[in-house]
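Researcher: We're reviewing a set of sequences before deciding which ones to prioritize for further study. For each one, I'd like a predicted 3D structure that I can look through quickly. This is ABC transporter B family member 26, chloroplastic. If possible, include the structure in token form so it fits the rest of the review sheet.
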Amino acid sequence: MTTLSTTLHSHTSFKYHKSKLFPIFTPTKLQIPNSTLSETLAHTTNSVLSSNSVYLARHIHVSNAYKQNRENCRYEKDETLDIFKRWMAFIREVLPGGSWWNLCDFEREIDSSQIAAKPVTVLKALSQMWALLADEKWICYTAFGALTVAALSEISMPGIITASVFSAQNGETLLFYKSSHVLVLLCITSGICSGLRSGCFAIANMILVKRLRETLYSSLLLQDISFFDTEAVGDLTSRIGTDCQRLSHTMGTDIHLILRNILQGTGALINLMALSWPLALSSLVICFILSAIFLIYGQYQKKVAMLAQDFVASANEVAQETLSSMRTIRAYGTEKEEFERFTRWLDRLALVGMRESLAYGLWNLSFSTFYRSTQVFAVILGGISILSGSVSAEQLTKYVLYCEWLIYAAWRLQDSMSSLLQSIGACEKVFQLMHLSPSHQFLSKGVKLQRLTGRVDFVNVSFHYSSRERAPILRNVNFSIQSNEVVAIVGASGSGKSTLINLLLRLYEPISGEIFINGTPLREMDISWLRVKIGYVGQEPHLFHMDIKSNISYGCFRSITQEEIESAAKNANAHEFISTLPNGYDTIVDDNLLSGGQKQRIAIARALLRDPIILVLDEATSALDAESEGYIRVVVFHIDSLVDLSLGLFHRLSTIKAADRILVMDNGQVAEIGNHRELLRRNGLYAQLFKTQMDAPPFTKHQKTMPLIFGEGLELSGGIKWTFFNHSKLRRIELNGLYKAELLNMIFQSGKREEIYEKGEKQQKQRREDKTIVASQHGKREVTYERS
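Model: Here's the predicted structure for ABC transporter B family member 26, chloroplastic, in token form for your review sheet.
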């Protein structure tokens, strides 16, 4: 009976791939007799037709699974391709054959607005270090002497060891004992001198780092204020800390090992020349090759070290800025963005470190290859020389030992030079900052007046910042302030009000014109003497991390009693809240301990304690409540014996109206001068500013600032009174010791921001209907609306 081998694809015979993502049909080979082929086909067809519904269902399931599998495969393929692309980019950036040797792309990322570090040669850097150790040179001389003795003792050992071994082998007992005694003496001498050498170099190194930081810090303190307008504080603190620390091993390790290996290498070379000058020259050639490779690698390493320090400084700058602004970051929810900004510099630092590591690997590969080649070469040449009878076994042993010593000294010398170049490269910016010329204010003593009455004259004063030469701040400003006079400066933002204060304090110098005090040019006066006579309170006063008593007496160079401190605090309306603190005047100031208004009151007390002739207030009452501001106004404006002259920037109308004269600034020029009534009658710029502040615009939905809520609580139900301010005043407000950012956080966290906006619209609508305006407090118009 003939049989026909027929292969049928069974619809029921399929299996899943091991990934279980898609099914695979498996062909089933059936052996069917020829006579029953037709019945078998018919039976199979009937089976398929009878199970058509089941087949269709399974087919749909298979099709869906297959489509899903294709999508998953496509996703895996895209992910794999993305990983491959990232690896290829990494290889191109780091590994040889890519752009790993070129550092220009990193150099372009350094902030060009800051002072660029100029290259410093090794000799110049060493001479500057030596100058810093001028008073402790005896320590260095002791270290150099101990270093010389220790190096000579160590370099003599290979010859004596060889002589001892071969004398014992030849039975020369006297020579053996003599060599052994000398060897013991050299070991003791070397140990003592090595300890003395290391200790003296370590002491010199600590003194060097200390003097370096002192000199750098002193140089920074004597710079003009304009210097700090361009240099970031985080970058400067990184220079004082991290960069100076890079020199912590310069004297104790690098210079020490460089001198030691120079002496030992020279001694080894002399002994090699005495044994066999052809063999010595062969070793010297290898040393020259290694030195040539090192010169290339050393310069690259120096540049890498400089870039690494710049990246560290930039990362520190970001970290300092972020950690000091955590309230703002938390309020805006930008933690992720700040983290990415910080890690961006760390990524650059890591990539530069990888490139430097690969360069070091190539250098180490070159050294290891030549070092082992020297040993092999010495053994081969020495063996040939022994076979020819020109060199003895003892001489060959000495040669191998001294040759290895020479190569090792050359390697250690270049390794120490590499570390020294890294330190110098990292500290190039430090050396440059150290030698910046101090402000000319500190170079000349100037004139000290016998009597300072407080008269101030600005004559044709013009000014612009060095970073914005095309944007003049002041233009031909002329005005005079008499003794015993209080002058308020008002004007729009950017009109030059604070610049007038800065010029009077001589934080900046006028571009043209002159400022006179008592008829004497300000630039000719002794600046240190003058600043003792001036009391200054800034808009955002800074309190140091010390007790309140020390903060109030800060800057007073005379002996201050506790009674005087308390009297100044009472005049500034600060004594009451200071007394409620845990330790009173001995309480350590912390950022979270005091509110903005409390800090301003302490700063005002600090200024009053100096008994100033001229009192300068740069919006110093901006964070005070109305009661405290009124009390300070009485103290400053109505105690004539307190100061001879007061000059201030104010924002509250009650304070401005109390001034003897008002100076109105507009676009860098004096627009108007007069008292409150005179300026209102002129109906000029001051009258417009006054009217604008009195008629503050109501809150609308499109207003970009949040309304500020006053009341006993923050609930949005009940009869709560709402108060809306012009957006330019929001940053001036304080509620029960809370900063604006803290208060807004509480509003946002309440989840009722939209309800606030809706109620603002309703109240605005009610205002249009009722046209009800409720009261002014302390001279500042506050438009309030009562919920119905």
